[in-house]
Write a structure and sequence with these properties.
With 307 residues, this protein is of the alpha/beta class. The protein has twelve helices and 13 strands. Bound molecules: NADPH dihydro-nicotinamide-adenine-dinucleotide phosphate.
Length: 307
């Protein structure tokens, strides 16, 4: 397949570029004019080129350039930043280009987290991300563009390295605060596996117009189980405290906007259990079941890098 990655310099985008090249696809990476001013990003993009990627220049403020870019490929994967959720709706320009081009066999918009279609009840201000992702979904479906939505659950770097605590992305060797009794199941992924599963699915008819949920069985674990893995690795028990849902939500008040978003998302994941508290229905498929050949990383393995 000819695959275009939009947002290839990003946290998950660079893993998707890597996986696309590794799985033998002709991989195009969108190069925005802004990137030429960022030396690290530019070097990364040039590195992709060295590994065989084709750079294609286009800008979100130039619709003709986006149209030209998507006309070259069969599959478009967008990994646009979700940190500033207004960026997510920039994807509408990409949707317009894909609709006009008419040749794209599959579009994977920037999702890669919780399933936004299940987050209609989410707390402000964190729900904005889900709302924006749903606006993009509606535009895709209204335009009749073939799609796959990837629900990638918790990226390890954001949720495992810190034992799912707010603050630094590195695990404490002394103490940890559990959400409630720490027993609610969440789902954690190595980012490299997110890239691998995402690319596996782009030409799979079983996931056409469906959501691909990344739920490797051994990575459906609670915060307490995650902490237990870390304790085993360092040979030491951490001092544990716990916070109730009410106190955790109350802590939102004195926090800045970004931290309020994070508190809301953590609440839904670790108190409500929003990642694992539903069965995958007709509109979805599970990645490790579809692709059992992928040797996914378990979280005790993932944690070893921090020892
Ligand atoms: P990043 O913040 O790393 O940004 C990705 C890319 O977005 C950038 O490298 C850039 O690509 C592009 N971009 C940023 N701003 C603009 C702009 N104004 N105009 C055009 N392009 C822009 O994104 P992430 O990898 O963190 O997020 C990608 C997706 O993954 C999001 O949907 C997010 O919600 C989700 N996510 C999921 C997590 C999880 O744990 N499941 C954790 C974090 C994110 P370039 O310069 O290459 O054009």
């Amino acid at each position: 397949m000819k695959v275009l990655v939009v947002g290839g310099t990003g946290y998950i985008g660079k893993r998707i570029v890597k996986a696309s090249l590794a799985q033998g696809h002709t991989t195009y990476v969108l190069l925005r004019p802004e990137t030429a001013y960022d030396i690290d990003k530019l070097q990364m993009v040039l590195g992709f080129k060295e590994q065989g990627a084709i750079l294609i220049e286009a800008s979100f403020s130039d619709p003709a350039s986006l149209l030209h870019a998507v006309k070259q490929v069969d599959v478009v994967i967008c990994t646009m930043s979700g940190a500033h959720s207004q960026n997510l709706t920039l994807q509408l320009k990409l949707v317009d280009a894909i609709k006009e081009a008419g040749n794209v066999k599959r579009f994977l918009p920037s999702e890669f987290g919780m399933d936004p279609s299940r987050m209609g009840h989410a707390l402000e201000p964190g729900r904005d991300t889900f709302d924006k992702k749903m606006i993009v979904r509606k535009a895709i479906e209204d335009a009749g563009i073939p799609f796959t939505y990837v629900s990638a659950n918790c990226f390890g770097g954001f949720f495992v390295g810190n034992l799912s605590q707010m603050g630094p992305f590195i695990p404490s060797r002394d103490k940890v605060c559990l959400y409630g009794d720490g027993s609610v199941k969440a789902i954690f992924l190595d980012e490299e596996d997110v890239g691998t599963y995402t690319i596996k699915t782009i030409d799979d008819p079983r996931t056409l117009n469906k959501t691909l949920y990344l739920r490797p069985q051994q990575n459906i674990i609670s915060q307490k189980e995650l902490v237990g893995m870390w304790e085993k690795l360092i040979g030491k028990e951490l001092e544990k405290s716990s916070i109730t849902a009410e106190d955790f939500l109350a802590s939102m008040k004195e926090k800045d906007y970004y931290s309020q978003v994070v508190v809301g998302h953590l609440y839904h994941i670790f108190f409500e259990g929003c990642l694992a508290n539903f069965e995958i229905g007709e509109g979805g498929e599970e990645a490790s079941t579809l692709y059992p050949e992928v040797q996914y990383t378990r979280m005790d393995e993932y944690l070893k890098r921090y020892v």
